[in-house]
Design brief:
single chain, 15 strands, Glucose Permease (Domain IIA), Membrane-bound Lytic Murein Transglycosylase D, Chain A, about 375 residues, alpha+beta, about 20% strand, ten-stranded antiparallel β-sheet
Length: about 375
Amino acid sequence: MAFSRRIIRLTTALVAVGALSACETGFEIPGLNLTAPQAATPAIDRPAPDSRGVITYETYQVMVARSGDTLVSMAQRVGIAPEVLARHNGLPISYVPRAGELLALPKNVGGSVVASPSGWSPEIAATAINNAAGGGIGGSTPSVGTPNEPLRHRVEAGETAYSIARLYNVSVTALASWNGLGPDLTVRIGQELLIPVADTDQIVVNTATATATPAPAVTPATVAPTPTPAPQPAATPTPAPVSSAVFLPPVNGSIIRGFNPEAGRNKSEGIDYSVPAGTPVKAAADGTVALVSESNGSLGTIVLLRHANGLMTIYGRIDKVTVAKGDTVKQGQTIGVAAASDNPSVHFEVRRGTEAIDPAPYM
């Protein structure tokens, strides 16, 4: 997604396919597990806001409404125009938020980034969420929001708090608590929700308890002797591209920014192609449309495709999208065109579960 700066993480909501890219701020990838979870993943508490009511994450900020707040008072408290805050959240300026309700801030208003709890583990979180999801769709690992970059989900028509909680394998209670939802759990189209972050300390305890359960006793006479296997050289864990995963470039253009995941806050988890506005953007491989959405960063409209072997591709800064969520697409099929801008470009990522991977070996 982030997808998918992490966050959404993937994680991309992969929960956590997940933030889309560290270099592309403000996007998270919603989870692709559309089946009902067997059990909701335990979540940490939402971080406490600062004295202004602001919670500062790596690439975005939210603001918690206080009792008696109005849209105007909240905007004035952080020095932004009330009209801008209202428009960014799709609300009339006369809207009166509930105490505890979250509003997304349209720009950085300063503040300290939330710290990640000591020992928090994205690997444990991903494993727990994937287990709760029954392995995910197509065997893919869901994306994971992090304490300093939770996944976000923009509500679409027909969605409810229950369906969104089910999508990310979190409890509806945690979703409501994190977002200050009312007693009726109502959500509105276009509302941006934070997805509760997995509590890996609690997951570790549960895992350890399960591991400590003794196995049933076996009568020694019934146990056949097991020969000691000869030592084998350790296998290299680096996954190799599968032969069926051959991607085409999404556009014919020059690469202006390559894959560079080790560059700190300026890292790039994909490829940027310079192309004229209106250039057709094509699906890199056969797949299914998992997401069409607007990012809150510089990616504009994004499309996420899910492919075989747990792979996903993400396309950003596109316009005139010709596909919708759930559509099946063929390799080379046009899914949109490069959006107009001062320096038009198309962003492309390949992900396996929560991990952004170098597209080059697959292309």
